[in-house]
Amino acid sequence: MRWIGIETSCDESAVAVVEADGGGLRLLSSLVGSQIARHRPFGGVVPEVAVREHLRNLPRLAAAALREAGIGTEALDGIAVTQGPGLATSLLIGHAYARGLGLATGLPVRGINHLEGHLLSPFLGSGAGKEQEAAFPFLGLVVSGGHTLLVEARGWNDYRRLGGTVDDAAGEVFDKVARMLGLGYPGGPEIEKAAREGNSVAYDFPQAFPERADFRFSFSGLKTSVRYFLEKNPGRLGDRAFVADVAASFQRAVVAVLVRKTVDAARARGLRTVVAAGGVACNGALRQGLEGKAARGLFRLLLAPPALCTDNAAMIAGVAALKERAGAALPLPDDIDPNLPLAAA
Ligand code: KG4
Ligand code: ZN
Question: Which residue minimizes the CA distance to atom 21 of ligand 1?
Answer without folding.
Answer: 279
